[in-house]
Write a structure and sequence with these properties.
alpha+beta
Length: 155
C-alpha cells in the first residue's frame, strides 16, 4: 500500500501497480504450468491463506480472476498475488466461534451447500475458494503434492 484516506468525501487506497496475468487468463490458455510451478502456486496459496487467517482478514472474493501471477521469463519461477480486497473485512477475535473448524475443513462447506453452494452464503469462504481455485489449476493436486495439500486442506 502506498497511501490511503478513509475520511472525507473521497476515500481511497493507492497500491503498487503489479504486472502479470490472472490465474483465470492463464487457465484459459490451457495446461501450461510445469510440475514445479504447480507446487509453488499451491505453496503460495497456503502462505496467503495463513496470513489471512492470522490477521483475521476475510477476502471474500478469492477466485482465479483475483489471483495475479508473475512468471519469470528466465527461470520460469512463479509468484502469486491475491488482489482486489474491495469486499474484504476484518474480524475481531472470536467473532465466529466455529471459525477454526471452517478454516480447516473445506469439505464442510461443500457438504453444507452441496451443488448450490455460493461463497457469499457464509461469512468465511476464503478456504473453500482457495480449494476450488487449486482444483482448477490441477484436479490431481491432492495426489501430486499430498503433504502440501493436507496442510492447506486438512480433512
Amino acid at each position: 500500500m502506498i497511501a490511503f484516506e478513509m475520511e472525507g468525501p473521497y476515500p481511497f487506497v493507492a497500491m503498487e501497480l503489479l504486472q502479470g496475468i490472472t490465474l483465470e487468463q492463464l487457465l484459459m490458455q490451457g495446461p501450461s504450468l510445469t510440475y514445479n510451478q504447480k507446487w509453488e502456486l499451491l505453496r503460495q496459496m497456503l502462505e496467503i491463506l495463513t496470513i489471512l487467517h492470522k490477521t483475521n482478514v476475510i477476502h471474500r472474493d478469492v477466485r482465479p480472476g483475483n489471483m495475479l501471477i508473475q512468471i519469470d521469463g528466465v527461470g520460469n519461477s512463479v509468484k502469486l498475488f491475491l488482489i482486489d480486497f474491495a469486499f474484504s473485512v476484518g474480524l475481531w477475535p472470536n467473532h465466529l466461534p466455529d471459525l477454526p473448524y471452517l478454516l480447516t475443513h473445506p469439505q464442510y462447506l461443500v457438504d453444507l451447500g452441496g451443488a448450490n453452494y455460493k461463497p457469499d452464503q457464509l461469512k468465511w469462504d476464503d478456504a473453500y475458494s482457495f480449494y476450488r481455485s487449486a482444483l482448477m489449476i490441477d484436479s490431481n493436486y491432492e495426489n501430486l503434492f499430498p503433504e502440501l495439500w493436507n496442510q492447506l486442506f486438512p480433512l
